[in-house]
Amino acid sequence: MPYSLLDLAPVPEGFEAADSFRNTLDLARQAERLGFTRYWMAEHHNMPGIASAATAILLGHVAGGTRTIRVGSGGVMLPNHSPLIIAEQFGTLATLYGDRIDLGLGRAPGTDMATARALRRGMDQVDTFPQDVVELMRYLGEPDPGAHVRAFPGQGTKVPIWMLGSSLYGAQLAAHLGLPYAFASHFAPQLAEQAAEVYRAHFQPGQLDAPHFMLAINVFGAETEAEAKRIRTSSQLGMARLRSGRPGKLPAPVDRIEDHLDPAALAMVAATQAVTACGTLQQVTEGIETLVARYRPDEVILAGQIHGHAERVRSFEIAAQAMRDMTMPAAAE
Predict the structure, then answer these.
(1) For tag attachment on the chain, is the N or C end more exposed, with fewer CB atoms within 10 Å?
(2) Do 195 and 280 touch, CB atoms closer than 8 A?
(3) Distance CA 70, CA 119 (A)
(4) Distances (CA, A) of 239 to 62, 143, 153, 185
(5) Alpha-carbon distance 51 to 241, whole Å?
(6) How far is CA 148 from CA 84, 129, 298, in A?
(7) What pLDDT is recorded for position 122?
(8) Percent helix, strand and coil across the chain, each to the nearest 5
(9) Taking Cα atoms as reference points, which of 270, 268, 188, 183 lies closest to residue 229?
(10) What is the DSSP string of 289-303?
(11) Residue 16, C-beta contacts closer than 8 angstroms, at least 6 positions apart
(12) Burial class (CB in 10 A: 0-12, 13-18, 19+), 210
């Protein structure tokens, strides 16, 4: 099973965005070495702990510093942009780096509503997302000499488009347009099973001939279970602060999360991070196997907000080994 990596370019407490960019490139190179299929980054705004706001620029940084791994967005929040601008940006990436670029699209703003207004300079109530996706696909598709507006560069690059989502809306649209579909189960797992069913049941051939469903899984791997639980606390604290309206840099880990979050906050974090594998190599392998058996994805994308860069690299090394261990018996059969 293909396994990919989602990097939110975290800015840990005690560090700056420049440190995050250096860490991102190093992690991408490690992911390439470890056999990850894709390296994706997500568009977020007005969040001190996430440095991937200018997503296309940072993807160029990663693609230019790697050789073979696919590089893409997971995702670009299309309502923040005109389809033509995104076609030009990703058409430029594809022109520079060839068939290594993916374009994942989301419908959410990727920020708070005040920042969304600052980004868009005008927000009406008309949902044009489906039409915008189709327009974007047209800009990246076969050249149309008769079109009044074309993307240069962009036309003819046929950058693969993915639909991202955390609800049934994206599943339905991906199925209708024949696109691959990635579900944000790493922070919104409640509808993951239903979304996968809807997507597969209603899929119509388009960009793809058959459905392709990607599941996002949080992974926190370490040499001991105690250390894995400890490095996970940064993600737990960060999620709790974000949901309470206090976003900040990625917190440093703590020894006991129960000493820092009340029971209600702990329950909220546990619900949002239900699709998680945490522990030693054996525990991570078993955790991913259980999730794969439940959700039946065609591909997984692994995430993990971890404060220390060395610990983050090690966690993804363990995750890659877990994926190899998990798929070995099937390959032997």
Answers:
(1) C
(2) no
(3) 28
(4) 26, 44, 38, 14
(5) 17
(6) 12, 21, 39
(7) 62
(8) 45, 15, 35
(9) 270
(10) HHHHHHH--SEEEEE
(11) none
(12) exposed
Residue-level length of the chain: 333
Residue 232: φ, ψ to 5°: -70, -25
DSSP string for residues in 120-152:
HS---S---HHHHHHHHHHHHSS--TT-SS--T
| Of 138, 127, 203, 206, residue with least CA distance to 171 | 203
Extract the tokens encoding 277. Answer: 């594998």
Q: Is the pLDDT of residue 207 over 80?
A: yes
Q: With cut-offs at 50, 70 and 90, classify the pLDDT of residue 108.
A: confident
Side chain identity, residue 37 = T
Separation of alpha carbons 198 and 216, rounded Å: 17
Beta-strand relationship, 276-279 and 181-183: unpaired
Strand residues in 170-282 grouped as ranges (E): 181-183, 213-221, 276-279
Cα separation, 105 vs 170, whole angstroms? 10
* Chain segment 312-333, per-residue pLDDT in tens: 999 999 999 999 998 644 433 3
Give the separation between CA 103 and CA 215, rounded to whole angstroms: 17
User: What single-letter amino acid sits at 7?
Assistant: D
| Whether pTM exceeds 0.70 | yes
In the chain, the percentage of residues whose pLDDT exceeds 70 is: 95
CA distance 234 to 6: 17
Interatomic CA distance for residues 184 and 172, integer angstroms: 15
**CA end-to-end span of the chain:** 14
pLDDT score recorded for residue 71:
98
The single residue listed with the structure tokens 């999730």 is 291
Query: pLDDT digit string (tens) for 226-257?
Result: 999 999 999 999 999 999 999 999 999 999 99
